[in-house]
């Protein structure tokens, strides 16, 4: 909660390999941008820092790249250290002035470091000796010193960020957006003025799922099972959110990375794949498009800062799709799906032809509808820039009115949240028109 009299502003919290470095980067922060994608692209994070004094380029950042994440903690501890809690007060928040009890002394693990906070260390007891669970002062812990770490994370440097809109609606309430965990992707330096740009991705480059080409035959697997096995092998989790789970007698992965192969299977099944916060998420866009709209925007309602819309034609004008297949018995199977308001007499109708292994006319028709959606979905697109809103995320639907041919229901295909070092906050929403009737 914030004071209702406090000017509205946004804050961001940043952790490198579990160490809270927010206070360390605050004097240098130009902007932090979190991009939340609906499908076919991993979420990403970008942090821009001014470096007039050369601190980041020549000192602190180099230590981070060498794995010395403890450089962010002036007391020498790092996340994961088991220390001796000396007994005394612990707090629910790092800024609280009222204690939440006084546990006995005992061993505890440091789980978060918030340098510069009133109570900078969050610790959790490791056995039954003490019941400490909360934020404590530096004077209340002793024992093991972290020193320099050789890299606490498996793979690349892990970065986690949270955006908080403080008193955004002048009601004292704060709204937070957990951006999730990312892996360091690249670092760019430019000047003058000297600027460091740190880019991180939700799908790690150090993981085999992205880089290593594999060859494997998958027999008697469901799509969810393939995704789950790939995720587990690469230290990730998987979520399957579609009602129908395609099953394969045998499917070949030949000299193809796991993520590319899984993406192709999803496309072939008319499903969508999203990579976010260490998870592979597979979902049916039609199901998401059918959900109630989260908000409505009209041309003159002043809820947005600016708008930009497009109307595309090339490659998006299929009126129907036919899926056909000749089964092992030599009998043909086919199914056709049509767009809403299909006019059989029109001379401009174009039909998308797809040859795919299906077992029935019903299955062929269902796949035809999904393929038709896949090719037609980007015909109408809208874009809005809002004052920051943590609630506007990819996958939500919204309505537009008074925009002429762009009126209708849309699904958020990308939400880009940007916080500036001065506390400004904007959210850019890109939406594509929801396809009804097929």
From TrEMBL:
Domain of life of the source: Bacteria
Name of the protein in its database record: Phage protein D
Species the sequence originates in: Faecalibacterium tardum
């Amino acid at each position: 909660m914030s004071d209702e009299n406090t000017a509205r502003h946004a804050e961001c919290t940043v952790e490198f390999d579990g160490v809270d470095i927010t206070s360390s980067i605050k004097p240098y922060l130009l902007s932090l941008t979190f991009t939340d994608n609906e499908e076919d692209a991993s979420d990403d994070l970008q942090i821009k820092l001014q470096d007039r004094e050369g601190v980041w380029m020549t000192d602190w950042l180099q230590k981070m790249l060498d794995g010395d994440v403890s450089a962010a903690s002036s007391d020498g501890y790092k996340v994961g250290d088991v220390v001796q809690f000396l007994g005394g007060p612990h707090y629910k928040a790092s800024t609280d002035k009222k204690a939440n009890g006084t546990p006995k002394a005992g061993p505890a693990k440091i789980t978060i470091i918030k340098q510069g906070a009133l109570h900078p260390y969050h610790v959790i007891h490791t056995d039954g000796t003490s019941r400490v669970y909360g934020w404590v002062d530096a004077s209340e812990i002793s024992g093991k010193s972290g020193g320099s770490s050789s890299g606490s994370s498996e793979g690349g440097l892990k970065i986690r960020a949270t955006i908080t809109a403080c008193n955004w609606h002048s009601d004292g309430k704060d709204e937070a957006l957990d951006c999730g965990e990312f892996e360091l992707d690249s670092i760019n330096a430019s000047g003058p003025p000297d600027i460091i740009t740190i880019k991180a991705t939700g799908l790690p480059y150090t993981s085999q799922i992205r880089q290593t080409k594999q060859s494997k035959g998958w027999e008697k697997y469901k799509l969810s099972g393939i995704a789950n096995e790939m995720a587990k092998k690469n230290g990730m989790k998987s979520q399957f959110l579609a009602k129908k789970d395609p099953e394969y007698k045998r499917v070949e992965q030949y000299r193809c990375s796991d993520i590319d192969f899984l993406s192709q299977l999803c496309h072939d099944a008319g499903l969508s794949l999203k990579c976010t916060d260490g998870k592979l998420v597979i979902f049916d866009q039609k199901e998401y498009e059918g959900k109630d709209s989260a908000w409505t925007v009209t041309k003159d309602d002043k809820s947005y800062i600016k708008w930009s819309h497009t109307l595309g034609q090339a490659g998006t004008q299929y009126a129907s799709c036919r899926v056909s297949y000749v089964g092992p018995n030599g009998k043909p199977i086919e199914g056709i799906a049509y767009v809403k308001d299909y006019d059989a007499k029109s001379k401009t109708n174009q039909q998308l032809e797809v040859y795919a292994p299906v077992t029935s006319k019903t299955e062929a028709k269902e796949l035809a509808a999904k393929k038709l959606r896949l090719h037609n979905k980007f015909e109408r697109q809208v874009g809005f820039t809002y004052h920051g809103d943590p609630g506007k995320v990819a996958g939500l639907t919204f309505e537009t009115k008074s925009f002429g041919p762009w009126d209708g229901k849309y699904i958020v295909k990308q939400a880009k949240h940007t916080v500036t070092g001065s506390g400004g906050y904007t959210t850019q929403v890109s939406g594509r028109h929801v396809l009804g009737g097929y």
